[in-house]
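Objective 1b. Sequence-to-structure analysis of SusC/RagA family TonB-linked outer membrane protein.
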Amino acid sequence: MKRILIMSFILLAFVAFQLKAQDRTVTGKVTSADDGTALPGVNVVVKGTTTGTTTNTEGSYSINVPADATLVYSFIGLQTQEVVVGSRSTIDVKLASDVQALSEVVVTALGVVRTKNELPYAAQSVVGEELSQTRTSNFVSNLSGRIAGVNISNSNTLGGSTNVVIRGNKSLTGNNQALFVIDGVPVDNSNTNTSGQQQGTGGYDYGNAAADINPDNIASVTVLKGAAATVLYGSRAANGAVVITTKKGSKNKGIGVTINAGVTTGFVDKSTFAKYQKEYGAGYGPYYGTDNPFFYEEDINGDGQLDLIVPVTEDASFGGKFDPNLQVYHWDAFDPTSPNYQKTKPWVGAQNDPTSFLQNSVSNNQSIFIDGGSEKGTFVLGFTRNEDKGILPNSKINKNMVNFNATYDITDKLSANASVNFSQINGLGRYGTGYDSKNLMGNFRQWWQTNVDVQEQKDAYFRTKRNMTWNQSGVGLTGPIFWDNPYWTRYENYQNDSRSRYFGYAGLTYKFTDWLSLTGRAALDSYNELQEERIAVGSIDVSEYARFNRSFREYNYDLLLNFNKDLSESLNLTGLIGGNIRKTQIESISAQTNGGLLIPGLYGLLNTANPLEAPVEQATNVQVNGVFANLTFGFRDFLFLDLAGRRDQSSTLPKGNNAYYYPSVSSSLVFSEFTKESVPWFTYGKLRANYAEVGNTAPALYIQNYYDVPTGINGTPLASVESTKYNENLKPERTKSFEIGIETSFLDGRTGFDVTYYNQRSVDQIVPLPVSRATGYDFKVINAGEIENKGFEVSAFVTPVKTPSFSWTLNLNWSRNRNKVKELAETNNLQLGSFQGGVSLNAALGEPYGTLRGSNYVYHENGQRLVDEDGYYVISPTSNEIIGDVNPDWQGGISNTLKYKGIALSFLIDIKKGGDLFSLDQYYGLATGLYPETAGNNDLGNPVRDAVADGGGIIFEGVKEDGTPNTTRVDAVYGTFGYDVNPAAAFIYDASYVKLREATITYSLPESIISKIAPFKGVDFSVVGRNLWIIHKNIPYADPEAGLSSGNIQGYQSGAYPTTRNVGFNVRLRF
């Protein structure tokens, strides 16, 4: 890495040295000849040189030129124009449409730039400005709704991970995440969340490594979806690729400075958080006292009379009906430091329910980028600072990022380029997840007393700095029985983490001729991370200190021979031949105290009550060597044949199976070449088709059995076999993909569409199958299984209005994926994960990947739910019924951009139809009586919680065994609305949504003002919003997108975090 840094700064010095002034300055404006609108991004170059610039957002430019210069104006889809400067200092130009200029370029695999005309596979791009406008710290979530065929979900936690799946899950148990590539170099995007965290048993979501990518440094993002698009990346790109191009300097531009500053505030969307009933308080029912069975009864004040005490040991709200005239002792009556000590208070609902525990999130973002260039080189240097404060107390993430990129022409034939990126992330108080005491959402959504005032819990903690909780272990005992004081949890049982990361590359390119060049590149992706977790003495859980250290290093060495040769007037050959060596080194060690902490408040491994157990250490070294080639034959720029292939050799597979090949054949036909004269309104049309194979290699350590070495007993060393039997004969997974598509545009590019059909079969799945424990193992690893994904993707655009002062552009995308497990060896069902509540996630033969199984209703032959003689639902005898499918029916997005002079308004609507999730929050929260559905009046107009004999209770909708409607009324008590008498299927919800995902309005100062306020070249003011409105959803009190982590385990909510509606202001200054 030091060598890359040294080389990069040498390049920067060369570039800066070469900057020089030109003889004279020419300014002007470039507009459209069709409608007079300003044209930003037009290339303005001095003919015969590399001196050039681009027009700004208002079409204006300024360039230094010699006196005898000719300026060349060019832009994609427009006719190139040359203008002799002469004696003029101002030149305004109008560019007309060129329906034959189909040279729009796309950055593809290995950073190769190809014209969209020849591209034989589906790829969609988003410009970086669209992703950075809303100032989110993780740009990946901003792709949601913008790209057809991409499914993105997140956990709603501070700095949490984002799940990115393209065209469905292809691996049964392996990685299904897209590959991330920056400037042609793959970077790691893994997370270190435990399997328990991913299955909802508790833990923290530490996010994935894509969060280290600076949104302000992104020029564009291209999503490569199919195997044909990613085959050159080999075994690591079976799941598609997100190709990121960073910002670059411009030759002869001089020095430019861009400053961005913004602040965003997030307001909790109350529709995604618990809503509480206000009629009843603590308890499980009338099970306690004699005089009033809803309360404990003891003589507290010594007057010889039994006093009423709130059931402080309970964590449900099926207790007594609120009565402001009833005086009772609450939890704080037993806290000697409380102003309510030994005092009664009215029996009423809390004035401050858990909603008041949540605070507004705040995100501050500042960045500065300096770019420049000379005749020989370019550079960009940037620094960005993010400060994010979460919705929970004592939660924040700070991030510092430095980005540098430079190019330099050493000679006419030899050039160098380099990129260095550094990020430092420090997190404090990330949110606990799943069913765990550190996840307060589980507390607030599942097990809570509606009479508890959160503000009083806050006062108690800060007054005593003790775990003075509402959920006490007994009357007069202030220690916890089930739940800690929520402020104790946030300020004492917190975590912290840090990650330092460097990634970048250095390369040389030698141009032998104008059609042949050789590039050598070395890249490094390196980071170290530390995670520390603590549980304080006095908590409900055993006190603990744990730490986890991990280091990641990946080296990539590429050698690429690129060529672009006209074989004749009609035939062109473009391609590359190359090789790649990838070495990945991962080391980790974790340890924790044993049996509690000896000294409260001291967090270190030596502060352990019992001897430390052996730390868990792991080290993996993986090497993959690959050679590849790509040939594209172009006939008269309208017919293309593309041949590609790669051979990989992987150290994670056994000899004999460790070398494997990936072929690809593709073709595209620009059929509009045959209609351009006869159908002038038909601007462009292209057919494309491809077939490719690409694969997933085995994880490290999957081909050899090894031993665990736990702590010895009385000095005697121990060793034990792993619970999984590994396989020395594994083969790589393989995905076989076929794709066809059509691209069109009409009316000189005013409207058009792109439609793709694909079919992918992933075979030789590497899976750990469960086996009898009589074998000495729990699982064995084999190649078994096949998954099919097939579907359609549609994207379309239209510009309904376009005048010199106003334009309106509408973009739509839609996709549908159908997924099926076609083959499984030795079993008909593979369980991918199991959750609390008796629900599991599965891959079953003949079913979609990701079916939810659990207990279900039993249905009458007439299709209605069956009710037994006692009035309760008949529940299936097993928990193995298919009750849901996590895969959506379809997804889509609609974006609009309206521009009027210097004002631009854009907004994005994100849609997902279908897909199911299981809510443990509803499973328990309805049982414990937290939600409004468990109170109020029944169909008779009486309180539903009254006894049936008093006109209360409910009637479950359904039929008796004979098919007649159920009329038996049952008591509405603890469990009636929740898990106690209902199957798991009752808590399966449709995860559909329609969201106003983004909205921005930007005002750019006009050139007439900018010219008067030197040194500014541009000033933009923006008001931005994200997740502003959930227009439609089906699950109550939660966001259907809220999950646990990235990875294969989806479709489950436990302690789901609410969404925030984010509104902010941003200013951008350009010098």
